[in-house]
Predict the 3D structure of the following.
Amino acid sequence: MEKITKLEVQKRNKERVNVFLDYEYAFSISTELIYKEGIKVKDEVNSEKLKDLAKKDGIIKCREAAIRTIERSLKTEKQVRDKLNLKGYEEEAINKSIDFLKKYNFLDDKDYVKKFIKDKLKSQGSNKIKYSLMQKGIAKELIEEELNSIDKENEKEIAHSLAYKKLNNLKKTENDKYKLSNKLYRFLLSKGYNYEIIKEIVKEIIEFEFVD
């Protein structure tokens, strides 16, 4: 058994407390943990108690790292997990941190998908959006559910606007009808629009521009 002889709040980080055992610095733990565990000077601790404190402190540090991650920008569950894994946190600590974020609505993949789609639809088609979300670890079923509810006519109108702007740029160096068609097709394909939308839009624009 060892005795806690001093508890000292760190000068540079008030959220951490230095713990001294038998008058020598031993380790630092979260201020939160000090209060939760009722740790006081003169308390005696054994190796099991120290291991338990280290484990709980690791969970708190992991949770704080998770919060910092989502404070910078909206994240998916997979993105948060990957960040915490890279930092070397234990699986149990990561799971508890994820549960904490979900409990207080800091982490919600469904909400993330809604906001992501709304933003990206301004310049991308469904296929590209779907691929991007899958890369972020979102379930395919959730992505398709949200994409199926978007206004297809609005998506087509945006694609038409993007294609027309692209055509105006292409016409500065190209005037061949078929080459322009192919370039527009590839452009819209790269933006993630499906074949039916691309075919319809390219046909409309080219026929309008090259009226016989």
